[in-house]
Amino acid sequence: xxxxxxxxxxxxxxxxxxxxxxxxxxxxxxxxxxxxxxxxxxxxxxxxxxxxxxxxxxxxxxxxxxxxxxxxxxxxxxxxxxxxxxxxxxxxxxxxxxxxxxxxxxxxxxxxxxxxxxxxxxxxxxxxxxxxxxxxxxxxxxxxxxxxxxxxxxxxxxxxxxxxxxxxxxxxxxxxxxxx
Length: 180
Description:
The protein is of the alpha+beta class. It has two domains: 3-73, Winged helix-like DNA-binding domain superfamily/Winged helix DNA-binding domain (Arc Repressor Mutant, subunit A), CATH 1.10.10; 91-179, Arc Repressor Mutant, subunit A, CATH 1.10.10.10. The protein is 54% helix and 14% strand. It has nine helices and five strands. The strands form two sheets. Strands 3-5-4 form a three-stranded antiparallel β-sheet.
C-alpha cells in the first residue's frame, strides 16, 4: 500500500467510527503499518481538512481523532435535525403502508377493513412523514379521501417505481426463505 491509500483508509476509519478513534485502534486495523506513519498521515489529513473550506473538520479529542461538523454550520444542522424524521416505522405503519402501496388508490375504510382496526392515527403519521399523500376523493357518498404513495416512499424503500414492489408470490417466497 502506498501512503495515499493508507491516508484514505485512515480517513474512512475515522469517518465510520462515529467517536474518537485512537492511533492504536487504527494500527490494529491497518496491520503492518507503524504508529509513527499512522500519526504522520493522520496529522496530514487533519491539516487538509482544516485548510480547505469544508463542512467537516478533523479534530484531536479524547486521545483520538474524530470528524465533526464545523461550528459555523450549526444553524443548518439544527434546521435539518428539526425536520428529520425517525427512520424506523412501526409494524402497524408498515402494514398500512403495504396495503396502500399495493391497493392504491385506496380509501381509509378499505384499509381498516383489511387491517381490522382503526387506522386513522397511522395514516396521519404516514402523511406527516410524506410516505403517502391524498391523491383525490372517491366519487361516492361522503367523498372519502383516496391515498397513494409518494416519491419519498420510493426513496425510503429504494424502489425505482411501483413495479419494483415484489409480487405477492415473490413476497411469500421471501417469507418462506426467512423462516427456513
